[in-house]
Amino acid sequence: MTPSFHARRHTLYRTAALLFGLGGLPLLHAMSATALHEAATRGDTAVLRQQLQQGVPVDGRDGAGRTALLAATHANQVEAARLLVAAGADVNAKDAIQDSPYLYAGARGLLEILQLTLAHGADLRSTNRYGGTALIPAAERGHVEAVRTLITAGVEVDHINRLGWTALLEAILLSDGGPRHQQIVQLLLAAGANPNLADGDGVRPLQHAQQRGYTAIADLLRAAGGR
């Protein structure tokens, strides 16, 4: 493993630590959240309806740049999300740290909300603050069904983020090599992911898998032509 790999990984985790607190909620979460945002976080559909009927903008922002739909997504409040989408909420509206309802639902494996965003205009080419599609963090975090859903939707499997990593590389580099990530590697390869697309240091997926002792993943890569 190269020094530059360590440096990029350290930067990745340091940035995440600064941006995220307990439970994965942004520390940038504003004290100025509106009643609409608060209702969305609680999943209080009655208050949401009342607020919208009173003319509160469905895509109004709180101090962190979040829409109410993104607030509902953070809390995995599916019915609140459905109501907001039906009222015209933008599934691609990004907050101050470049999360959107679509990107966040994909990254966190929130399958019902992910499917909702895909059915209502999710931009499959949109990227997060690391320059990655929703597929990349879904693969890293072991969200098998989210990965399957995003592949089926048509997200590019070989997209490279600013760290120089694809979904396939992150499913190896940032995983424990266990059954979920083995299944994700299999899904990515079956969808046409390039088994020899190297990282920024020229290290290929098979080499990373071998270095970590991920035998099952290495076997999958070899079977797909990895070297």
From TrEMBL:
InterPro entries, sorted: Ank_Repeat/CDKN_Inhibitor (IPR050776), Ankyrin_rpt (IPR002110), Ankyrin_rpt-contain_sf (IPR036770)
SMART domains per record: ANK
Cleaved signal peptide residues: none
ANK repeats: 31-63, 64-96, 130-162
SUPFAM superfamilies: Ankyrin repeat (SSF48403)
PROSITE patterns: ANK_REP_REGION, ANK_REPEAT
Keywords from the UniProt entry: ANK repeat, Repeat
Protein name (database record): Uncharacterized protein
